[in-house]
Amino acid sequence: MNALEKFSLEGKTALVTGGNRGLGRGIAQALGEAGAAVAVTARTEEAAKTAAAELGELGIRAYGLRLEVSDMDDVERAVATIAAEFGEIDVLVNNAGVSIGGAAFDAPDSTWREVMSTNVDGVWYCSRAVGRRMRERSGGTIVNIGSISAEIVNQPRWQVSYLTSKAAVHQMTRALAAEWAPYGIRVNAVAPGYFLTEASPVDQPEYKPYCVDPAAMKRYGEPDELGPTVIYLASDASSFMTGSIVKIDGGYTLF
Predict the structure, then answer these.
(1) Does residue 33 sit in helix, strand or coil?
(2) Which domains does the chain have, with CATH numbers?
(3) What region, left, alpha or beta, does residue 144 occupy, with left being phi > 0 and alpha being psi -120 to 50 degrees?
(4) Cβ neighbours for 204, distance < 8 A, ≥ 6 positions apart
(5) If DSSP codes are grouped into helix, strand and coil, which group holds residue 61?
(6) Among 7, 59, 77, 120, which residue carries the largest CB count within 10 Å?
(7) Catalytic residue at 162?
């Protein structure tokens, strides 16, 4: 196998949570373009199936499924369904997440619970449900979507719950990587900086002083700039890599 062949995901099945839009949609397409069959989930069946249909139009074998990642029973159901109807999962991308702003004194407790249950519990439930099946098959790869928010304080919105959740995702990545390495399961994460998505309108003027100007490259990222790194982490190209957090932020955190 030559160097380029190691990036191929031919014959693999990938699951991308929250794969119907934004970064998740870009990641799902990238994995499909690398040869994987891709299952995408969303909070509604319509959104998941629409995304799968769009991927199918690009020649990617895709499957859409409703999933609430913060519900352990729903996660177990979805993973079993995907395995039975679409194929055992070789690659899990824990992308589903929410970001809700609010100053610490003002935000209701429900905001904290919603962010942590989706961004932390969701990664935990999905990783364990898929990881158990990977252990039985002696291998697999998990890629968690963290954030530079694990180490900086975002502006202009205060969002302590989101920052805390992403720091937890980074540490969970390291912990699972160490524990699951003997089973042939690799666990890594990417830490995106500011990317333009439906939920992150960083092209608007009010975001420029906070999200664009501080970056060494003086721009925001596009969703298709994240997918190739996820391919790398999901494929044999990164076979000696686990527990790593790969930062993709245009040099934002250099200063």
Answers:
(1) helix
(2) 5-245 (3.40.50.720)
(3) beta
(4) none
(5) coil
(6) 120
(7) yes
How does DSSP assign 209-228, residue by residue? IIIITTSTTSS-B-GGGTHH
Catalytic residue among 162, 194, 220, 252: 162
pLDDT along the chain (255 residues), means of 10: 96 98 97 98 98 98 98 98 97 97 93 97 98 98 98 91 98 98 98 95 95 97 97 98 98 97
Inter-residue contact 126 to 69 (CB < 8 Å): yes
Sign of the CA dihedral with 117 first, then 118, 121, and 122 last: positive
Q: Quote the CA–CA distance of 169 and 145 in Å, as a whole number.
A: 8
Copy the structure tokens of residue 201: 């309108």
How many whole angstroms separate alpha carbon 202 and alpha carbon 210? 9
* Cβ(122)–Cβ(95) below 8 Å: no
Q: Sheet holding 140-145: strands in order across?
A: 62-66, 37-42, 13-16, 91-94, 140-145, 185-192, 245-248
